[in-house]
């Protein structure tokens, strides 16, 4: 009879140990998720992607006769002539495209290429797009959001 009670006690103790181990595993996983830093990087990556896409969209915008903005910037800055727009008009077109693209988010930006220097807002933290370089030229396009 005593042997039967001992086995029952051992089984209860074993069950209790299993329950404690399961609770410990749950606690460890919960602690990992609670201690994980907030994902600021995801927002930064999204803004960098948005900056790169907007820069690409601006540069590939066709002005006339298969001449895009990138080619017209090169013409104005390196060759000193224009095929579609006067160089000052080109600045206005670039500004309008960026302003309309960012109109809903009220976000600041900067666009620089040669003599073209456009900015909106007072930027402290910048999210820069990858710099676009022109082939056979020192000219490059810098774009950032803030």
What is the topology?
Layout lengths: L1 H34 L4 H21 L1 E3 L2 E2 H11 L7 H15 L7 E5 L2 E5 L6 E2 L3 E2 L6 E6 L1
Antiparallel strand pairs: 1-2, 3-4, 3-7, 5-7, 6-7
Task: Tell me what you see in this structure.
The structure is a single chain. The protein is of the alpha+beta class. It has a domain at about 45-145. The chain contains four helices and seven strands, in the order ααββααβββββ. Strands 3, 4, 5, 6 and 7 form a five-stranded antiparallel sheet that branches. A hairpin with a 2-residue loop joins strand 3 and strand 4 (about 115-120). The longest helix has about 35 residues, at about 1-35. The radius of gyration is 30 Å and the shape is rod-shaped. It starts with a helix and ends with a strand. The model has no long low-confidence stretch (mean pLDDT about 80).
Strand elements, count: 7
Which structural class matches the secondary elements?
A: alpha+beta
Mean of the pLDDT scores? Answer: 82
What is the gyration radius calculated from CA atoms? 30 Å
Shape category: rod-shaped
Largest sheet: 5 strands, antiparallel
| Quaternary class | single chain
Give the proportion of residues in helices.
Answer: 55-70%
- The share of residues in extended strands comes to 15-25%
Number of DSSP helices? 4
Question: What tags apply to this protein structure?
Answer:
146 residues, alpha+beta, 5-stranded antiparallel sheet, two-stranded antiparallel ribbon, rod-shaped
């Amino acid at each position: 009879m005593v042997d039967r009670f001992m086995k029952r006690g051992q089984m209860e103790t074993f069950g209790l140990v299993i329950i404690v181990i399961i609770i410990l595993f749950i606690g460890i996983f919960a602690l990992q998720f609670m201690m994980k830093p907030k994902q600021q990087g995801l927002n930064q990556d999204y803004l960098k992607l948005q900056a790169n896409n907007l820069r690409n969209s601006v540069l590939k915008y066709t002005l006339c006769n298969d001449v895009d903005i990138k080619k017209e910037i090169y013409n104005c800055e390196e060759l000193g002539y224009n095929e579609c727009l006067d160089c000052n008009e080109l600045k206005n077109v670039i500004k309008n495209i960026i302003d309309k693209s960012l109109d809903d988010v009220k976000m600041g930006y900067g666009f620089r290429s040669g003599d073209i220097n456009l900015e909106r807002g007072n930027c402290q933290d910048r999210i820069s797009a990858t710099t676009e370089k022109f082939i056979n030229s020192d000219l490059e396009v810098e774009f950032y959001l803030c």
